[in-house]
Each structure stands twice: as C-alpha cells, then as structure tokens.
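Cross-check.
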Amino acid sequence: MVKKATMLRMLLVFVMSLSLLTGCFGSTQETEGDLPGDQNHIADADTGPSEKPEEDSQDEKFYLRSEKYGFYLEAPAHWRDKVEVSEEDHGFVVRHRTISKDAVVQNPVIINVVEYGTVEKWEQDSIKEDEPFPYDKVGVINGRVFASVFLFDFPYGPESPTDAEEFESLLSSRDEVLKSFTPIDNAGSSEAGSRYRAAGIDDPAGFEKYFREVQSLIVQGDRQEVVKHFRYPVELNIDNVSVTINDEMELLDRYDAVFNNNVVNAVAGQKTEDLFVNAMGVMVGDGQVWFGVTDQGEYFILSVNP
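Predicted model, tokenized:
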C-alpha cells in the first residue's frame, strides 16, 4: 500500500509539472498593446474577460500593434477579448476568435493590412478599370503604401449565431479602426512631421488622434460635443454670409446650417494621410473644415464652410 501511495504521489507531481510547463509555453505572443507608445507592453492573446478591468468603458481604446511593419491601429475596448493578431508574410492580420466549435469557418479574418508597394505603384494600379482591385489605402510609411484587403464573404451561418453577432459588432467599427492607422514612430515619418509643422503642429500623432475623435463626433451628429471644439467668438460662413458666433448655444441654434450634408460627407470621407496642410491650418475635403492649434498646443476647429 505504501509503495502504491508513493507511486501515486509521484504521478501527481509529474502531471502538475507538465501542466505548468504547458501553461508557460503553450500560448502564442500577440502584438496587442494597451498603449501605442509603450514598446514593452504586449498583451497576451489568452487574456480573458476576468483579467480585464470591469470598469472598461466604450470610450477606452485597445491598440493593435504591428512591430514587423511599424504601425498600430486603435480599436474600441470591446475588441480586446474578441480578436487575435498575427504578423504574417503577407501582412498584419486581425482575426475574430470563434466561440462555437460548430462554426464552419474558425477564426476568420476581420482585418488584413498588407504592404502594397510604392506610392507610384499604388497610383498606377488603383486606376486600372479592367482588373479587380480589392484594396483600400490606409496609410503610407517611408514611401510605402499600406492597404486593407476587402472582405467579400460573411463567415458565419445559423449554426453559430453568437459568433455571427460578434462579427457584426466588429464589422460596425472596422472602418474606424482602419482610419486610425498610425506609424509607431510618433505617427509620422519625417515627411509627415514636417508637413504638420507648416501649421504649427509638432505632435502629428496627437493631432491625428484629435482629428479622428472630432471626425467621429461630427459623423455621429453629436452636436453637443462638436460645439465644444471651437474657440469663441468665431466667424463662420452661413448661407454665404459671414456670421459671428459668440458661444456654444448660438452655434447649436445654427448647427444644421453649419454642419450640412456637404460638410458631414467631407469629414466622413477624409483620411488622415490625405489632409492638406499649410500655414493657415489643416484642411478637410475642399475646405469644408479647417483645424488650428493654439500657442499652448491645443487643437480646435478653426472654421467651417458649408
């Protein structure tokens, strides 16, 4: 009996040791980070809901980092436990973590960003009408164009309704995530940095983050928040007449005339890499909106031209 008990104890120790080793080496390192500037903070792909602070709000962000290609994407906090990231030869891939084992497709791609080639190659290929072109430019780093690959098929069927619902949720914010494409080196090659300096902006990453926040507010029609981004009094062109707006309440009264469809559509379609910059500020579209910066480095909406 003593001999059997001893053997059982040895077997138990062996099993526990094997379990610990599996836990240490069985996970795959993912390039998911909480802060774009924290080079050493890499979140484990197996981090579950129990390890995420319960206080997470919809305003918090989750950063998807590509160390291989040198950029990050900014995603809503609810993406954190629903996706996994991999650096592959053909690009930076974000996949939905499939829940159901019955799903026909497991871990389908939600985002695939590829290094397409030079700006010249992009300009040549993107205008070809006789060939399929399933790409959308998301940014440029050191003269190299990065593009997202279109999604053609919805991956889930009725056999996995929970996965379908989650994938739909991710799709609803996919475009915003892709718009947040930012090079890791302070969101700007030297070319981008010098471009913004023409408008007195020394922090390209900070401005582009601000722009995306205001862009989202305008597109969503959150007028109560949008009016907070002006410096009053401000001269605005309303119905081809220059009008002085003295405070937020006055702008709220005229909001629909200022932020009409022409303005909202221009803001919605604007990509950060295509922003026009000069000494006057940063221009959206054909001049529908201009942004400026104060001497204290605070960004604001300089003017709106419906």
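The two ends are 90 Å apart (CA to CA). DSSP finds nine helices and 15 strands in the chain. Passed to J.P. for a second look.
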